[in-house]
Task: inverse folding
């Protein structure tokens, strides 16, 4: 394994913190950076920086580094609705800054993309491969698609060693942005009923934070990548909301959840994502089935209300 630190952007966020903390526990040197400090001590140093501050990013990456994992972003379509220009500048210009630093330093970059980049996938496309069109229909998804394409263009044009991971809906400990799984569990633990105006007949593909971190580490450590540079990362299950509710009821007996009809207006309609390439090229497979992940999440929330 190459020497040097792994720079993790977004180190105060869900994925970035979990990744940096696990790498630290494994004895790897980590340099975290985010616009704010993590709420918890993950055992790694973290430097405040905006992704648009290219000079500070160069300073952070100026020492002995072996890779960059770019998790930092305005994360999710629910954020930045009143200031889309700021989302664009942070997510696209910030990604360009990190790609250029990685090119100049000659280190691998792992870009954390999203299945939101696909927008609504074509009816009947099952499974959805990585070469399906990226047709985002919200600004967040468009910025992820932009960073995704830009990363692969850097690979093609400059020879940069970079990998794109397209995560589906991430859930689990420390998620603080909107998460209906968390809200259902918290309501149940407090004895409240949950009523959703959507869900019946709608599907979603969740992936546990532990599996996401394992996918990033697999991408960091993979020796032979080959021509494919983008990979779908999901929990391997396309669940109807009724099945999701059943898992919550199993995790918190007595949970009372009522579903409305149709799709979540904050989500897209997705076919089942093909994750076989990640298994074949990166040696990664999800390990946390949703029912088990919901139980683990409920246990964590009981001890760590957020």
Result:
């Amino acid at each position: 394994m190459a020497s040097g630190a792994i720079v993790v952007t977004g180190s105060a966020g869900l994925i970035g913190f979990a990744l940096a903390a696990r790498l630290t526990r494994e004895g790897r040197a980590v340099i975290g950076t985010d616009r704010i400090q993590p709420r918890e001590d993950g055992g790694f140093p973290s430097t405040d920086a905006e992704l648009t501050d290219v000079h500070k990013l160069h300073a952070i990456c100026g020492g002995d580094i072996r890779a960059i994992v770019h998790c930092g972003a305005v994360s999710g379509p629910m954020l930045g609705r009143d200031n889309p220009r700021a989302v664009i500048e942070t997510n696209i210009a910030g990604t360009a800054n990190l790609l250029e630093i990685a090119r100049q330093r000659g280190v691998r970059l792992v870009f954390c993309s999203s299945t939101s980049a696909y927008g609504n996938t074509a009816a009947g496309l099952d499974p959805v491969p990585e070469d399906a069109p990226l047709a985002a229909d919200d600004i967040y998804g468009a910025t992820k698609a932009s960073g995704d394409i830009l990363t692969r263009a850097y690979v093609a044009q400059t020879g940069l060693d970079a990998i794109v991971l397209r995560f589906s809906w991430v859930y689990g400990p420390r998620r603080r942005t909107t998460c209906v799984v968390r809200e259902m569990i918290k309501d149940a633990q407090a004895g409240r009923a949950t009523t959703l105006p959507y869900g019946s007949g709608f599907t979603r593909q969740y992936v546990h934070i532990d599996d996401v971190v394992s996918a990033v580490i697999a991408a960091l450590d993979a020796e032979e990548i080959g021509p494919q540079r983008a990979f779908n990362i999901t929990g391997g299950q396309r669940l109807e909301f009724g099945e999701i509710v059943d898992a919550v009821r199993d995790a918190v007996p007595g949970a009372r959840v009522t579903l409305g009809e149709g799709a979540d207006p904050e989500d897209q309609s997705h076919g089942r994502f093909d994750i076989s390439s990640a298994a074949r090229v990166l040696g990664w497979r999800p390990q946390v089935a949703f029912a088990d992940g919901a139980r683990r999440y409920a246990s964590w929330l009981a001890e760590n209300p957020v």
About this structure: The first strand starts at residue 5 and ends at 9.
